[in-house]
Amino acid sequence: RLYCPSRAIAMSRPTLLNILLLLLQGADSFRMHAATQPPSSALAGGADVRMQMAPAASTPAAAAAAVALLVRAAETRAEESHAVIEALVGLEKTMRAEAKADAKLSGATLDALDGAWRLCFTTGTVDTQKKIGKINYFPLKAVQTFDTTTEPMAITNGIYVGDVALVRFFGPFEFNEGTRKLTFDFDEISLLGLRIPLPKGGAAQIGAASGLGSKSNVARAKRELPAFFNWISANEDIATARGGGGGLALWRRDLEAQERMRE
Q1: Non-local CB neighbours of 57 within 8 Å, separated by 6+ positions
Q2: pTM of the predicted model as reported, rounded to 2 decimal places
C-alpha cells in the first residue's frame, strides 16, 4: 500500500473530485453485471464457513421476522423493494424500543458490527431521492469495514470492481451506546491504491458531489461536526442503519473482505 504525504502530491480538490467521478463513472459500466451476480456462497454456506458469530443478543426475538426478510433480501435480491423498506422501518422502531429496555443490546450491536459489510440495498439520501428516486438494490460493489479492536476504532468505505478498490476512504469512528449513533470522519482517500490525506471536510464534499453522501454532511463539516449513522442492527448476517441524510441501508457480511481485513 503506497502512502503519499500531502507535500509530495500537489492535487487540488477539483482535480481529486474529477478523478473520483471518472472512477465512479467507470464503475457504473459494471452495474448490470454486479446487479445480476448470485449471492456470495460464503454467506449461503452456513455456520461452518462463518468467520465470526455475533452475540445472539444483538437480534432480539421481537425483531426476528423483519431480520429474516432482510436476510433473504441480502442473499437473493428477490424481495420486493417496498417489503424491504417496510422491514427496515419496522426493525428500526423495534430496535429503538428494545435498546431502551435492554442496556446490553447496544454493546452487542457494536460487537456484531466488527467486520466487513457489502451494501445491498439503500433508499438513498433524501437529496438523492428528490433527484432520481429511491435506489433500492445497490448495483455496484460497495464495501464498508468496521474495526472495533483498534483505538480509535476504524472505518473504511470503498467502491470495488472485483477485488480491486477504485476508491476507498479511511478514518476513525465512535459509537455512542446510549443513542446508537455512529459518528465518523474520513481523513484519507485511496485512488487505485494511491493513498492521499484529505483536508477537513474533504470527504463530505466528495460524497455530496458524487452522490455517495449527503449534502447535510457538508454543512456538518463546516460546523466541525462529524458525519453519522443512526445504527439500527447488526448480527452474523446483516447490518442496518439510517444515514445522516435520512436514507435507510442494508448490508450483508462479506466474509472474503473480512478475511482480507484481518490479514
Answers
A1: 102, 104, 105, 108
A2: 0.76
